[in-house]
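Following the same procedure, sequence and fold were stored together, as reproduced here:

>
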Amino acid sequence: MTKKGTDKRTQKRRNTIYYLEVFDLESGRLLGRLVDITVAGMMLISESPITPDRTYKCRMSLPADILGRSNILFDATCVWSRKALNSDFFEAGFRSLIADPGDIDAIEMLIQRFAFSDL
């Protein structure tokens, strides 16, 4: 499945300086590595295809303690998935469903501390 239609994103996604790991809590397996993020969504790169229109229970390991957290737990729905330009990998876009305001604050801090600034 490829990304459809126009980009409806309201926030600019920011690339992080680390490929942070995101795990599927139900299987315990690595879902993928973070490519870019906002408080509302993220893009992962993965070695295996990710099923679109499915909600995953996720854990993202943080590069350092942020607001007392070393991980963030959240649900994320895969909105699109496709083969990456490097055909050994897959890309997938997610909409995050984070309910805990503390986790949203931690993601905002992650973006401030570990994301590339706009040029």
About this structure: Confidence is low (pLDDT under 50) at residues 1-11. The longest strand covers residues 69-83. The first helix runs from residue 101 to 114. The helical segments are 101-114.
